[in-house]
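Exercise 7.
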Amino acid sequence: MMRHLLSTGDLTRDEATLVLDTAAELARVGDRSVKKLPTLRGRTVVNLFYEDSTRTRTSFELAAKRLSADVINFSAKGSSVSKGESLKDTALTLQAMGADGVVIRHSASGAAHRLANWVDGSVLNAGDGTHEHPTQALLDAFTMRSRLGRLEGLRVAIVGDILHSRVARSNVLLLNTLGAHVTLVAPPTLLPVSVHTWPCEVSYDLDDVLPKSDVVMLLRVQAERMTESYFPSVREYSRNYGLDGERLARMPQDAIVMHPGPMVRGVEISAEVADSPRCTVTEQVANGVSLRMAVLYLLLGGS
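Solution. The predicted structure, written as tokens, is:
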């Protein structure tokens, strides 16, 4: 296993499969009355979050604690960062404190890569700008494999705001490595200029893609990252790219619906679909703990 987890594009098929298999083993710990393992006792994991997060930060914290690591939660608000301290100086401070692993979420694309050059410990990218979010892609793949029994040959549609989505890029790279076939579905204005270089297909017609998809992953429109209008109205976007009960019925009977969260009901997903047994959102959250335990175990202490 490599020293850092910065991009799913860095993972070989064997390495990615090892993470998923390890997560499957560690998921059994969650069924025990005592949910802790002594694996990372004496190790220190720092959660360095420059952006707000609920699921990811809590998931990493719980994962590290279940492996008996010491956890420090560092928020940019109320810290020296709010006084102007640079990422490099923050990194050197963590280095001096002896952090074995640093989990970073940052608004700047490439921040995790820069941090990896400044600290001796392992760096785990928990989302950098619009670049990548590798553990989200891994837990998504883990959920697909758990539900559908395979990844090889799966037809996955990723629908919505691809332009601002680090989840989409990480999933395309990982799923391609693991043998799945990915189609991005979005209006032209919400696709990156470089999308033609990604190992996937592109479609602008959700209704055409749905009957051929084993997995439909919906993405939130990230209005907070937008400085201009990318589509005429929310109503029109929802009509063209939202998944409701009628569209769900056009999907194959055993196909599943995924969402990395947070969901905006009534925009990209209807309440009917969000509450359907075919929607895996809560499973993804639960699987996130096991998957992040696996990553921490492999990077900081396991073999």
